[in-house]
Request: fold
Amino acid sequence: MGALVRLCGRGEVDPGTARRFDVDGHRIALVRIGDDFYAIGDECSHEDYSLSEGDVWEDEHEIECPKHGSTFSLLTGEPQTLPATKPVPIYEVQVDGDDVQVVLP
Ligand code: FES
Reply:
C-alpha cells in the first residue's frame, strides 16, 4: 500500500466542485459529489490543462476538461468523449473523521 496523505478537511470542497492539490509530485483534482470524494489526475491527458477548473457532472460521475470538453470518469479515469483518448490516473480516497486523504502509489 502507498502513502496515505491528508489533502484537506471535508468542508473545504463544496459539493459539485473540484479543487486542485499538488502533493509529492502528484497533481490531483479532488472532486466532491454529495458527501463522496473522488481523486483523479488533474492534468488532462490531451493537453496540459487543469481538470479541477472544469465542470463536475454529478449524475455521470465525470469531470469535463475546461479546454476542449473531454469528460473523464471519476471512477476509472477513462475519457468518455474526444479529443482525449488516454486515461488519467485515479487515486483511492479515504475519509477519516474530518480528514480527506488519498493513497499515493
Ligand atoms: S486539453 Fe483537455 S480535452 Fe484538450
